[in-house]
Each structure stands twice: as structure tokens, then as C-alpha cells.
Design goal:
Elements lengths: L21 H14 L17 E5 L4 H9 L3 E5 L5 H7 L5 E4 L7 H6 L5 E4 L9 H6 L4 E2 L6 H16 L2 H9 L17 E5 L3 H12 L3 E5 L11 E2 L3 H7 L2 E4 L13 H6 L4 E5 L8 H9 L3 E6 L21 H5 L4 E3 L8 H21 L24 E8 L4 H9 L3 E10 L2 E9 L3 H12 L4 E7 L1
Parallel strand pairs: 1-2, 1-3, 3-4, 4-5, 6-7, 6-9, 7-8, 9-10, 10-11, 11-12
Antiparallel strand pairs: 13-15, 13-16, 14-15
Helix pairs in contact: 2-13, 6-8
Family: Belongs to the D-isomer specific 2-hydroxyacid dehydrogenase family.
Keywords: Amino-acid biosynthesis, NAD, Oxidoreductase
InterPro entries: ACT-like_dom_sf, D-2-hydroxyacid_DH, D-isomer_2_OHA_DH_cat_dom, D-isomer_DH_CS, D-isomer_DH_CS1, D-isomer_DH_NAD-bd, NAD(P)-bd_dom_sf
Length: 461
């Protein structure tokens, strides 16, 4: 997914390390080794040796749940989302939580999470988590921003064809016993112009698929991006809306993107054009869209995401949830789907694998590679034969003098390796030190934890 709007540096979204960077090379080598069955022979445990408990919510891949259990974690798995009150009541006994898009991790929840070390979002977005509050609490947040890109792109292709052929309405009529064969206002997508707003992983894959169907592709993104195939970048959103027969949105939910498609933008679209939103529920002003469809300026729409969504399967999608729901459901050539853009077996398996690896690496080795709200720090594994070596993981406020304090505390020992980085107000240093006696470990941990900048200090042995 493209990130076309700049985010504040203290909570900026982070992707995997860039190709060619030392961390990227380390991460690539480690994944290659693991794929061949080569794993670090020294498994690290918290100094306190407390059994780690994970709370897994919503329909997360069962393979991810099985992976956590196979690594010795105690896992409580519920297939539904939890409300804020339920989380506040239960989260204090857990060290990690895995969620999808419906569970909200608010500042209130984080204040109640006295043991929480890590949050795994088994989905693309992280707007359901208060990222800044999590970072201030020393809790990295991981997600899988690209694993369901193909699934979303394929859904858009199916919606392009269904809207242009009025397929949903014809199928519904026949299922109710009405035969209504017609060709009026039914079109091929070949030769039509597809406008993609946000030319990231989803948008670029969609671009390739659309061109294979003979469509002309234009895109708008605030970043200058090299197009794939014959796609062409336009300079303004208005230019894209003016030219496109179909407009599809692939942007994150940010203050700058909320209601980015409203009355003014809908009026700029071609008469008889179609709008598709599989991005985030608040980027389209739906009451304005309803009026544009009623006036026949917009010929149809496909919507997979909504400002407010039911918490569980079977719950009502009605006017109590969104006041315009019944009016939208009654309109012709409107395709509504229950946030299934990434809901394929392939996508969920890939997301489960990626996020569970991130979470396990952080809990077991301190690695924050892939964190969206944290500096990305990693060290090579402690190997067999280094039983006197311990790993120090020190999360602290980003202020002068911290490394001096930490290194003063470590000075009696041999520092085998060390890495530190900062992101906004949060900094993180990892160090492996040797020849530390069991008696020294507790005393050393207390000394580092008692520094005035300390947020969270863990020792892995």
C-alpha cells in the first residue's frame, strides 16, 4: 500500500529495512538460513524466566497460533474482537497481543497492560492501535503491510467487471426469480481508464492486472513513483478524477485522507464513472456518495470498508452502526462487502507467518525489525558455547547521556556486540555482554532500569 501522506517522525510508519542496508542484509541472511532449517542453537529466555502469555483475537491464521504454541508460549485464542472494556479487564496478564482490524488498542488499554511487551497486527494497517502511546510505553507494534496486496488487487478487478456489467443486480434479480436480460449501460472494461489513488504495492499490482485486461491506467500519488508498464502518473487528484472511468482508492487513513473523496471530488468525476474503496472506511464521504449515485452522476460503487464496522460475524450492519446504511444498501449497482479485501487463505497464511515471526523474534531475541512505531534494531544470534553471554535490551527516552550511563554500567564486562538507534522520542539499544555471573545479572539489570531515561529494560539469557 502506498503511503502518500507524510507522517510525523515520532510515529512514522516503517516498512522492512531498505535493500542494501546492513539490517536488510542481516534480516535476509537470517530468513534464508531459517528456510533451510538452520536456526540459532542458543534459545534466549527472559532473566525473570516468567512464562510468556499471548492473547490472540479475531480470525488470525491458525498456523500463527500453532507457531506460537510450538515455541512454548501460552496462547489464549478467541475468534472475536474484544471491546475496550474487555481488554482493560483481561490484558494485564498478557505479555503479547495479536489482533486484526476490529480490536482497538487505545491509551486506556495500554495503561492497563502492565506486562505487555509487544503488539502484533495481523493485517496491513495499524490505525487501530495508538502507536505513539504504545511507543511511549516501550511496546513495539508489528504488522504485515504487503502480504495481502495481491488479494486486494484481484478483488478490485472482480469489482471493475461486476460494476461495469451490473452483475450484482442481475444476479440478485435472478436469485429472487426475476429474469432481466439487458445490455443497456453494461460495458467492457477493455479500453476504459482506471484511475488509481495511491500507487504502492496494491496499486502497482492492480496496474499490471488492469493493463492485461486492456485498460488504460493513470495514477495519483504525492510521491514521484516509477510507473509499471504503460501506466502514467498525473499531477493532481482532480486530473485523475476528470480522466477516469473507474477510480479506486489505496491510501491509509490519516487526518489528510479522511473524506478525501467528498461532494467536490465526486463532482469532478466523469458522469457515469464508478468509485471503488477497498482502502479505509473514512476516506470517502458516504452520504455525499449516496447523493451522487441518486443523481446518476456516479453509475455505481463497490465498498469493502466502512467508518464503523460490526465487531463480529453475524452482527447487524444497520443504521445504528452507520446512519446511512439502509439507504446505501437500497441503491442500484452498489456492491458492499464485509472488509474481505485481504481475506484469502493465501494472504492470511502469509500475514500469519510474517507477523508471528516478528513477534517471536522480539520476544525471544529483542529484534525490532519491521516495527512501525519503533527504531529498528537487531543483533546476530548468540550461538552455542556462549553460555555466559546475556543480551541487554534497553528501551529509553531519546535524550543525551543515555549511552554513557549504559556503557558505564557495562564497563566491567566484555561487550561482544552492541547496536542502538532512535525514532522520535524513543531510543533502543541492544548489547551482548560476556562473563556475567548470575549474581551480577539482577544487580546490573536494576542499575540500568533505574536510570532516569528508562522505559523498559529486559535481560535475555
Amino acid at each position: 500500500m502506498s503511503v502518500p501522506i507524510k507522517i510525523s517522525s515520532s510515529v512514522a510508519a516503517s516498512t522492512s529495512p531498505s535493500a542494501g542496508s546492513p539490517l536488510h542484509d542481516l534480516y535476509t541472511r537470517r530468513r534464508a538460513a531459517e528456510s533451510q532449517g538452520i536456526r540459532p542453537s542458543r534459545v534466549l529466555q527472559p532473566l525473570e524466566n516468567e512464562g510468556l502469555r499471548l492473547l490472540i483475537l479475531e480470525n488470525i491464521s491458525q498456523e500463527a497460533v500453532a507457531t506460537f504454541r510450538s515455541q512454548g508460549y501460552h496462547v489464549d485464542h478467541y475468534t472475536k474482537a474484544f471491546s475496550e472494556d474487555e481488554l482493560v479487564e483481561k490484558i494485564s496478564s498478557y505479555h503479547g497481543i495479536g489482533i486484526r482490524s476490529k480490536t482497538k488498542i487505545t491509551q486506556r488499554v495500554l495503561k492497563a497492560a502492565s506486562k505487555l511487551l509487544v503488539i502484533g497486527c495481523f493485517c496491513i494497517g495499524t490505525n487501530q492501535v495508538d502507536l505513539e502511546a504504545a511507543a511511549q510505553a516501550g511496546i513495539p507494534v508489528f504488522n504485515s503491510p504487503f502480504s495481502n496486496s495481491r488479494s486486494v488487487a484481484e478483488l478490485v478487478i472482480s469489482e471493475l467487471i461486476s460494476l461495469s456489467r451490473q452483475l450484482f443486480d442481475r444476479a440478485y434479480e435472478l436469485k429472487t426469480g426475476v429474469w432481466n436480460k439487458q445490455s443497456k449501460n453494461c460495458w467492457e472494461i477493455r479500453g476504459k481508464t482506471l484511475g488509481i489513488v495511491g500507487y504502492g504495492h496494491i496499486g502497482s499490482q492492480l496496474s499490471v492486472l488492469a493493463e492485461a485486461f486492456g485498460m488504460r491506467v493513470i495514477f495519483y500519488d504525492v510521491l514521484n513513483i516509477m510507473p509499471i508498464g504503460s501506466a502514467r502518473q498525473v499531477e493532481t487528484l482532480e486530473a485523475l478524477l476528470n480522466e477516469s472511468d473507474f477510480v479506486t482508492l489505496h491510501v491509509p487513513e490519516l487526518p489528510e485522507t479522511i473524506n478525501m473523496i467528498s461532494t467536490e471530488q465526486l463532482a469532478q468525476m466523469k458522469k457515469g464513472a464508478y468509485l471503488i474503496n477497498n482502502a479505509r472506511g473514512k476516506v470517502v464521504d458516504i452520504p455525499a456518495l449516496i447523493e451522487a449515485i441518486k443523481s446518476k452522476h456516479i453509475a455505481g460503487t463497490a465498498i469493502d470498508v466502512f467508518p464503523h464496522e460490526p465487531g463480529a460475524n453475524g452482527d447487524a450492519f444497520d443504521d445504528q452502526l452507520n446512519p446511512w446504511a439502509s439507504e446505501l444498501r437500497a441503491l442500484p449497482n452498489v456492491i458492499l462487502t464485509p472488509h474481505i479485501g485481504g481475506s484469502t487463505e493465501e494472504a492470511q497464511r502469509m500475514i500469519g507467518q510474517e507477523v508471528s515471526q516478528y513477534v517471536a523474534r522480539y520476544l525471544g531475541y529483542g529484534s525490532t525489525i519491521g516495527a512501525v512505531n519503533f527504531p529498528e534494531v537487531d543483533l546476530r544470534a548468540i550461538t552455542a558455547g556462549q553460555d555466559t553471554e546475556i543480551r541487554v535490551c534497553h528501551i529509553h527516552r531519546n535524550q543525551p547521556g543515555v549511552l554513557k550511563q549504559v556503557n558505564d554500567a557495562l564497563s566491567p564486562y566484555n561487550v561482544e556486540k552492541q547496536y542502538s538507534d532512535s525514532k522520535g522520542e524513543i531510543a533502543y539499544v541492544m548489547a551482548d555482554i560476556a562473563d556475567v555471573s548470575p549474581a551480577d545479572m539482577t544487580r546490573l539489570k536494576e542499575r540500568i532500569s533505574n536510570t532516569d531515561s528508562n522505559i523498559l529494560t529486559r535481560f535475555l539469557t
